[in-house]
Amino acid sequence: MSAPDWSQMWRAFGRIGIVSFGGPAAQIAVMREELVERRGWIDEPTFLRGLGFCTLLPGPEAMQLATFAGWRLRGWPGGLLAGLTFVLPGAAVMMALSAIYLGWGRLPLVEAAFTGVKAAVLAIVGAALWKLRGQVIGSALGAAIAVAAFVALYVLGAPFWLVIGAALAAGLIAGGADAPAAAPVRAARGARTLRTVAIWLGVWWAPLLPVVLLWPGSPPAQAATFFSWLAAFSFGGAYALLAALAQYAVEGYGWLDTEAMIDGLGLAETTPGPLVLVTVFAGWLGGAASGGWAMALATALVTLWATFAPCFLWIFAGAPHLERLAANPRASAALRVVTAAVAGVIANLSVRFATEVLWRDGGPDVTACVLAILAATALGSGRLGLLPVLGLSAAGGALAYLATGG
Fold first, then answer.
1. pLDDT tens across 306-345, in order?
2. Where are the domains positioned within the chain?
């Protein structure tokens, strides 16, 4: 099939950006439904190869997967469009919610509506996992790897990087001389890669260096250096990044306390876009504590740039090599093992997400359980699309809160 035109790209990736609630597992499910099933722009093996690759990168894997998909369809302009439309709607919502939180604190009615949204997202994740089971796992060995990854993460509490690193090593050692090779789409040359790295390294740091040099020690300068470091070294996906953020933003810079950090994470889980948009919340509160609304906005914008600009560098420099390496049997086998492990990772995230949504204060959340069942029924029937289901679920959560008197 021919590449989609730009209006189709805007509609598809704009829709993904608006409805991508619920963290990485839900966002990957939404992308797969839109790009693989609904539009058929990307085939399943390419999508899963991209997912395995993005899992190995530092930073938010879901945003990088969206960028990879856009690049795969329309080169770097397509990747830029996909990445920006995935991040910017949620970033705008997060800044607005940060300002509201700073002025009025938590809003129970809004939280109740977002509980409904999360219940609907849970139904989306469950359906996506069921559809992915055969494609991702694929064999008895793949199933064993996925189960082992899930047990290591959920039961044993093993670090994410250790699980994925072990899967990668196992895949490389096992070989794969008879593995089917995927035809590369683009050949990647060393000179072209170096040029790409230089360009996007410049894009990353061009707005940040003046901030660091002209206003050293200010919250925007602290944000520029800290979040750039975090973006470059936070291997392990969104949750590894959040652990480092909590340590430095709360204990190091004193931008916010632990309770506010937990509130910010809750807001990030209920807004569209990557879960790591909680960095924008931390930056906003840190800037506001130092210099009011103007400093809050400046720090949040610097935080947003430093967190997500590096993702374009990783994808645009690395993705062409992924397409080439996919033709190598050993590398292709290693990627398949990693992707099987990612199935266990997604299952782990999904179970944790389901527990958070459906279980509150030591018992089941009846409202969330009912809304999740209704959302799953509506989506399964095919009579309602994703956006109407999300809207109705949000309204159901708000009405249930009002009906019980708050």
1. 999 999 999 999 988 876 776 666 777 777 787 778 778 7
2. 24-186+318-403, 192-316
